[in-house]
Amino acid sequence: MRERPDTTGDIVQSVENRRWCPGSSGLAASCATGRWPLLAVVVLGVSVGCSGQGSAETAAVEQAVQAFEGALATQPHEACMMLAPGTLMELETSGTCPAELADLETGAPGQIQSVEVFGTHAMVETAQDTLFLARFDGDGWLVVAAGCVPRVEQPYDCVVEGG
After folding, report:
1. Distance between CA 130 and CA 148 in Å, rounded?
2. pTM for the full model?
3. Which residues, including other chains, have CB under 8 Å from residue 92's CB and lie 6 or more apart?
4. What is the pLDDT of residues 57-115, one digit of tens each?
5. Cα four-point dihedral sign 130, 83, 97, 28
6. How far apart are CA 93 and CA 3, in angstroms?
7. C-beta of residue 11 within 8 angstroms of C-beta of residue 38
8. Cα–Cα distance between 72 and 30 in angstroms, integer?
């Protein structure tokens, strides 16, 4: 398995009043106090400035999600290579990634309903669940969290997510 630098902890993503808060259990309505609110504003500003890259990035995100979901059922070792470094590390705390993915109830691949790209972060809603991705230099779009379902006034509940 190739090694990737672990930059997952640097992710802060604003999506429809939800933020990816590093070190938390996932997406939240707000991050802990400190530098996160400012960083969220900076990320949002960069995201607005990068909004013109839409169609090419959207297609790349869709392709990454389809490849990941397709590999889950039949080639979990391939799906592991499509996980962000922090997500892979978190998953492997209790066993090998392929074995852990094979044991998960992620459901059948769902038809993509919407893709939102915000700079180097993306949110993809399928008919069954939601996935969050981040773009990594040299590796492209990798899955940060998968099998996610929204909860009222709480972070997403995800089957696969990084620490």
Report:
1. 5
2. 0.68
3. 100
4. 999 999 999 999 999 888 999 999 999 999 999 999 988 999 988 877 666 677 999 99
5. negative
6. 16
7. no
8. 31
Q: What angle do CA 56, 58, 60 make, to 5 degrees?
A: 70
SS3 content of the chain, % helix, strand, coil (to 5): 35, 30, 35
Q: Shortest CA distance to 30 belongs to which of 18, 41, 13? A: 18
Count of all residues that appear for the chain in the document = 163
SS3 111: coil
What is the spatial distance between Cα 121 and Cα 112, in angstroms, rounded to a whole number?
17
**Half-sphere CA count of 9, side-chain side, radius 13 A:** 6
State how far the Cα of 19 lies from the Cα of 75, in Å rounded to an integer.
31
Q: How many CB atoms lie within 10 A of CB 39?
A: 16
